[in-house]
Amino acid sequence: MTFTLQCGTSPMLVSMPHIGIDIPLDLQSSFVPHALDVEDTDWHLARLYDFLPAMGASVLQPRYSRYVIDLNRPPDDTPMYPGAANTELCPTHFFSGDALYKPGREPSPLEVQRRRTAYWQPYHDALATELARIRAIHGFALLWDAHSIRSHIPWLFEGKLPDLNIGTANGEAAATAIAIAVAGKINGFTHVINGRFKGGYITRHYGQPAQNIHAIQLEKCQSLYMHETPPFAYDEALASKLQPTLERMVKASLQAANDLYD
């Protein structure tokens, strides 16, 4: 199975497209050895969001690393942020800008298509089906796309990223009231709405407020809850300071969505 889906009872689906760490054995020899450490993973999100089952949220998680295929990129590989550094549908570079593959071993167009069929499509079929199921039951659906990233990545952005980065595709993927409610629960952390990270393909494609589906992305600095250097360990002391705020943010998004349809 290329993903796991836990179906909940609430109107919320949480997608974690970059937490996978597996690289198929038949692909491993094409990567540089360092790639097998999968350093650009969104580490420990399932643990950080361990309050989701009690909320009744559905949770979708992939098995395979974003180095195999990036589930948050368009199937046609259109750049998400024109004019800025972008990762591809099948990434060929680390976030440092260094090459992921040995010379001449980068995926061919045919291999990209194979991976899209084998890994990307099943995840998105599950995502779309679960959103449809939720909307059929509740009249609307709320998609929370969960991410994390190192706080300093010069190849992708200048300086330090704000602690918490809320994205709604400039308001096109979710009602403004939802983003405002989420930001209103932040205390003690820096944040921005629709800054460098406005939401990737998942937020932009599935967020359709006119169809009663709202999508919001949260990109958080990994320095808030873990060590950003190998072995990328979870830091319980740090996480315990972030997690209550994160839980309030998620609950606020669901309450705001519920309020729209009461």
Question: Would you mind describing this structure in some detail?
Answer:
This protein is of the alpha/beta class. The chain has one domain (3-261): 3-Layer(aba) Sandwich (Aminopeptidase). Helix content is 31%, strand content 15%. It has a seven-stranded mixed β-sheet, sandwiched between helices. Helix 5 (176-183) links the parallel strand 5 (164-167) and strand 6. Helix 5 (176-183) packs antiparallel against helix 7 (236-261). The radius of gyration is 18 Å and the shape is globular.
Q: Which SSEs are present, and which pair or pack?
A:
Blueprint (H helix, E strand, L loop, with lengths): L2 E4 L5 E4 L9 H4 L16 H4 L3 H4 L2 E5 L46 H30 L2 E9 L14 E4 L8 H8 L7 E3 L7 H6 L6 E9 L14 H26 L1
Parallel strand pairs: 2-3, 2-4, 4-7, 5-6
Antiparallel strand pairs: 1-3, 5-7
Helix pairs in contact: 5-7
Helicity level, as a percent range?
25-40%
CATH topology assignment: Aminopeptidase
What is the level-2 CATH architecture name?
A: 3-Layer(aba) Sandwich
**Distance between termini?**
38 Å
Radius of gyration, whole Å:
18 Å
Got a strand count? 7
Strand content: 5-15%
**Neighbour order of strands in the largest sheet:** 1-3-2-4-7-5-6
Helix-strand pattern: EEHHHEHEEHEHEH
- Mean pLDDT equals 95
Number of helices: 7
Largest sheet: 7 strands, mixed
Task: Give start-end ranges of low-pLDDT stretches.
Answer: none
In CATH's first tier, which class applies? Alpha Beta
